[in-house]
Design goal:
globular; 331 residues; UDP-N-acetylmuramoyl-L-alanine:D-glutamate ligase
Length: 331
């Protein structure tokens, strides 16, 4: 593909409104230093020197979409305590709208605290509630999303599922039905609980582990012929147009219209794989909204997911860096 085509693709991103539905969280980082072992138990004592809060989960997908120039609209359910105030302040700091955020006093705002000492990840502490939404909250949440979809022009919808209960089968069905009636493409980054609930979506993006668990098959990661057989079964069961499977060090696999293509991973210095899936699905949503062919959707998204692995922590993609790498690969 010629350079002007790539340039026009990236310029088109700024026209898009992308709705992200899913489990949001706060990524908390606590840094410190270990000087001694505790006299109470054989564990290190960490002298904390700094702590930082960042948007995580589905909110990180929104940050990646924003970083690529588009307008993300984040929809989720959080708690109503002090951590929800922290979450809203983080949204405001990053210029993200909170119109799709619903507070529920019976739920907890998910916080993942990573404790890092002497440049080593020592421990992670999770605060969360992963039960499904209560019926009344589910109805209110679905209504909020449908209202936004009715009032705004939305170019693609992303379901970012972390199995924390925000996405339910009823939420999926209601939103996918609306999207299909209004020709809005839908993309899914699934987890185990709702794996087979995402019927009639446009693009389904499990990683290899999720594919194995969700489809209850036993395949070797490099056996693309067997992966294709499993993908065909999933296409039939879910009625999805594209199946995009991430294979970590082996790149990505995409199937469509009874055929498949594999795109190898780029050679990189991997620092941290956290958030790579968020970056990949966010990039794919913009490529799909731009009407790109499946091999290009997979190729550009694969580059994006690899780029963020060179950074420490969960960070959004650099549009300029992605553009340069895509130009080099496809020019």
């Amino acid at each position: 593909m010629r350079n002007p085509d790539i340039k026009s693709i990236f310029e088109s991103f700024k026209q898009f409104n992308i709705l992200i539905i899913g489990d949001v969280m706060i990524d908390s980082y606590m840094w410190g230093k270990v000087d001694r072992i505790s006299p109470e138990a054989p564990v290190p004592i960490i002298m904390s020197s700094a702590q930082e809060y960042r948007l995580g989960g589905a909110a990180n997908v929104a940050l990646n979409i924003q970083a690529l120039g588009a307008n993300p609209i984040l929809c989720s359910v959080i708690g109503n305590g002090s951590k929800s105030k922290t979450f809203h302040s983080l949204l405001k700091k990053r210029n993200l709208t909170s119109e799709g955020i619903l507070k529920d006093e019976n739920r907890k705002t998910t916080v993942k605290t990573r404790i890092i000492a002497d440049n080593q990840h020592i421990l992670r502490v999770d605060e969360e509630l992963d039960t499904e939404l209560e019926k009344e909250t589910e109805t209110e949440f679905t209504k909020k999303i449908l209202t936004i979809l009715s009032e705004k022009q939305v170019n693609a919808i992303v379901f970012e599922d972390y199995d924390k209960g925000c996405i339910t089968p009823e939420v999926i069905k209601s939103i996918v039905d609306f999207a299909n009636k209004n020709n809005i493409p839908t993309l899914v980054d699934p987890k185990k609980r709702n794996f087979m609930e995402y019927k009639n979506v446009t693009l389904f993006k499990p990683n290899f582990k999720e594919l194995i668990e969700g489809s209850k098959t036993d395949i070797k990661k490099g056996d693309f012929a067997e992966i294709f057989v499993a993908s065909q079964k999933l296409h039939s069961q879910l009625k999805t147009k594209y199946l995009l499977i991430t294979l970590s060090e082996l790149g990505v696999f995409i199937s469509h219209n009874n055929s498949y293509q594999t795109i190898p991973a780029e050679i990189r210095d991997i620092a941290d794989v956290s958030g790579a899936g968020d970056t990949l699905i966010g990039t794919a949503s913009l490529c799909l909204a731009a009407g790109l062919e499946p091999d290009l959707i997979a190729g550009i998204s694969n580059i994006a997911g690899g780029l963020v692995c060179e950074k420490v922590g969960v960070v959004p993609i650099s549009k300029d860096q992605l553009f340069q790498e895509v130009i080099e690969k496809y020019s």
